[in-house]
Amino acid sequence: MRTIDFSPLYRSAVGFDRLATLLESAARTSESGGWPPYNIETTGENAYRVEIAVAGFTPDELNVEVKENLLTVTGRKTANDDAQRNYLHRGLAERDFERRFQLADYVVVTSAKLENGLLSIELKRELPEALKPRRIEIATPAGLIEGKAA
Question: Residue limits of the SHSP domain (predicted)?
């Protein structure tokens, strides 16, 4: 895969270093394998869901953490009785994993549930009141009637 040089961006733009870091991180992530598979979907105007296929993992073996706009999902398999089992074919991947998702500003995790081998993480964009659009009333002088003084 070809590496991308972001140095021209750093020379000509101020304050976009986070964007360049995100692009570099995305390039590194796409190079790493695609396990476990996942879906990202929109479930509403400001609502999202991340579903990760984690068949064979229990809730105790999974960890969902958000820190500084980075959602990290890890799976750590506990030791099991594999030494006592005689596999003819072993196609189920029960290996540890770590999957990271960069979250936009004001996107928060609202819930996570494990059902039928899918870990579903619900997210929502919650804009602070100061950033929401608001209507400004236009005042008129009380003494004016159709442009004439009373």
Answer: 29-141
